[in-house]
Amino acid sequence: MPSPSPATSSPSTSSSAFPSDSADISRRRENLTSSELGQNKKKKYEVHAGRNRFGCGGRLVCSRSHGAFVVTVFLMIATLTLYFVFDAPFLWNISPAIPIVAAVVSITVISNFLATSFTDPGILPRVENLEIIEAERQENGVPSTSEIPTDPNTPRPRFRDVIINGEHVKMKYCTTCRLYRPPRCSHCAVCDNCVLMFDHHCPWVGNCIGLRNYNYFYRFVFCLSLLVIYLFACAVTHMSLLAQQMPFGEVIRKTPGSVVVILICFLTTWSIIGLSCFHTYLLCADLTTNEDLKGIYRKKHRSTPPASQIPGVPTKNPFYLGCFKSFASRLFKSRFPSVLDATGYVDHQPTIEIRVPVKHEKNDEKV
Amino acid sequence: MASKPAGSGGAVQNGTTTTTSTYSTNTDSKNAAFETQIIILNQCRKIFIQRDYTRGLDVQFEAEYPARLTEKVPRDVWENTITRINRIFADAEAITPQTIFETVLGCFTCYASYLVTKSTYCRKLDELQEFLDRENRDIYHHVGFHIRNPMERGLRVLEIAMLIRQGEIPHEEPEIQESSRPIRTI
Q1: Which of A123, B49, B80, B117 is within CB 3.0–4.6 Å of B158 for a Cys-Cys bond?
Q2: Out of A14, A28, A358, closest to residue B6 by CB
Q3: Which residues are within 8 A (CB) of B167 and not within 5 positions of it... i.e. 6 or more apart?
Q4: Does A184 fall in a domain?
Q5: A238 lies in a domain?
């Protein structure tokens, strides 16, 4: 694959020290290696191994299972349409502010929803063979540990122990992605990817929730709970005001949409409010849903000897920095870059150019 | 600059082996004629610097001096490089008024602002790329190393390629062609 052009704009791709020359060089390298590399460049998302769907040239990332996602979209569109057709005109006459607030909150909800659904959640790309070979060579090459057998098929130890803020945490080896999962990273069974800071796979938004889209997700859930309550209140107000003027049967005949809005909101509001409270708690405690469900840091799950003596069993959440700091660090950090880099080009033969002083002896052919 | 034919992928000619004094020679000779060599990184041995998780999940790399750099790169030069890399990441991860403003602006514009502006993190990564290019060009290439951008490895490890020199066989084991190696199953 030719070396990436400077136009790809991703900081990760161009390792050439002299980009101005790279077009020329890549052309020559294409001649050299065209047989094994094929003619056209492929983007990384085209060769991605996980079960993801990509859109817009790799800019949009979502899961391949989308049944519940369609339901969510349908429910949101249906409820909002009914509200703006049946309730909003009536409420506009009372005060224009009421439907305007609803519109603003709806737009916030929709934008956060789309951002959650189509942002790369923090997928770790799988490790190439070359890196594994080289990493093993490095480990075995160090003189102090040279006694390790060098058979390439020896399985790796399943865990690697790291100490985070004084607590032992296990990094589990992921056999699919062939890497030691960083702390808080987990393999999503639905998408078949390791996701950084994995929270959960949310079928309703059709994506994993991880490091990169948790903040969108939290704002989505929070604003959605506000919106649901607001729509419910609006529809109830609308119907009760009408009911003062006419019998109830006529009210239902006049605004059947409000009845549907009330029903949908009433049925969904409990789970949504519950979810938004739960995630607020998780933010304050600096936990992920995954960790909370597994109960890693909970006292009652600990075995009888003091857990601090067993390596790999943390006694407290090592990431907790205090309620406010935890909250802020997950909502107000700068956007983490997509390490998947789905829009970048695959570079099977990365090359660099270096400048060396001219000497008179010639190089051997190395390829 | 004169470019070599593309076939000469494998070798760095610059046979410098030792420390500080060699640098100065190289920097002095900058005015002399240079040629560009193309090096295929897949053929090089690698040193991997692991992530340092001791202070949490923020991207930091282990500052320990890799044994393979001994006699090629002085310890303080390496420490300066790795500290700078870590500081760039620490700055990128920090919560500053600017990042808060970025986020709030994003919320209010339905994330349209994210499409047109670069995040602080991205700008820091550009700074990192620039820094690595400079360090590689000025120091590490001369002694046969190349630090790759950690984004290439998903910010899991920092990869240093040991550029293959002419006539030098990697000392631990003979050359292994990657294609002939079976795919590892674990």
Answers
A1: B49
A2: A28
A3: A364
A4: yes
A5: no
Q: CA dist A234 to B3, B119, B139, Å?
A: 73, 39, 68
- The answer to whether A277 is a known catalytic residue is no
B4 CA to chain A: closest CA distance, Å?
Answer: 9
Q: How many CB atoms lie within 10 A of CB A283?
A: 19
Distance CA A45, CA A58 (A): 6
Express each pLDDT in A126-141 by its tens digit: 988 888 888 887 777 6
Among residues A352, A337, A341, the alpha carbon closest in space to that of B125 is found at A337
Supply the range of the domain harboring residue A144: 129-195
The per-residue DSSP string of B101-137 comes to HHHHHHHHTTTHHHHHS--HHHHHHHHHHHHHHHHII
Has residue A2 got a pLDDT over 90?
no
Contact across the interface for B12 and A132, Cβ inside 8 Å: no
- Number of domains comprising chain A: 1
Q: Which of B114, B157, B186 sits opposite A155 (nearest CB)?
A: B186
Tokens 């995954």, located at residue: A290
What residues in B contact A337, CB-CB < 8 Å?
119, 121-122, 125, 151
Here the ipTM equals 0.77
Rounded to whole angstroms, the Cα distance separating A71 from A204 reads 8
Which chain A residues touch B26 with a CB distance below 8 Å? 357
Tokens of A73: 């979209």
Q: How close, in Å, is residue A292 to chain B by CA atoms?
A: 18
Cβ <8 Å between A152 and B56: no
- Residues of A whose CB is below 8 A from B41: 15, 349-352
Rounded Cα–Cα distance for residues A75 and A72 (Å): 5
Interhelix angle A67-82/A97-118, rounded to 10 degrees, is 170
Rounded CA separation A175/B186 (Å): 6
Minimal Cα distance from A170: which residue of B?
B53
Nearest to B37 among A125, A219, A354 (CB): A354
Cα dist from A123 to A9, A11, A111, B155, whole Å: 20, 17, 22, 12
* Res B7: pLDDT: 37
Give the H or E element holding residue A71: helix A67-82
Task: Give the 3-state secondary structure percentages of chain B, helix then strand then coil, rounded to 5.
Answer: 45, 15, 40
d(CA A248, CA A316): 57
